[in-house]
Amino acid sequence: MSAPAAAANDRTDAVLARALDKERRRNARWLGSIRLACVGAIFAVALWQGLARGRADWRAELPLFGAYALLSAALALVAWRRPSLHRPAALGLAFVDVPMAFLIQGGAAPAAPAAAFALGLFCAFVLLAALALDRGLVVAVAGAGTVLEVVLLRRAG
To answer: What is the pTM assigned to this prediction?
Structure first.
C-alpha cells in the first residue's frame, strides 16, 4: 500500500472511530433515560400496590425497587453529565438491570411464571445492549441473563 493510501486509511479510521464514539455516547444517554423511565414507572406501581393498596407481596419488594430506582438515576446522571463515561453507564445493563430483574423475579411466587417473565426481560436487556454498539456488552448481558434464567428455571422445577 502506498503512503498516500495508508494516510487516507488512517484518516478514514479516525473519522469512523469519532463517529462511533459520538453514537455510543448518544445511545448511552438514551439508554439511561429509558432505564430511568421504566424503573421509575414500575417503582411507582410497586409503591401504589404495596403502600396504597396494602399488597404484602409488592411491599416486600419495595427495598429492591427503591435500590433499583436509585441505581437507575445514578446511571442516567452519569450518562448525561459525563458522556466520556458512556461505557460504565452502558455496563449497568449487565451489572444492574439483569441482577435486579433476577432478584425481583426470584422473590415472586409462583416461580414458573416469574421465570418466564424474567426471560422476556433478559431478552429486552440484550436488545437494549445492542444500542451500546459494543459486542462485549451484548455478550455480557446475554451471558448474565442466561445464567440467571437457568437459576430461575431450576427454582421453578
So the answer is: 0.86
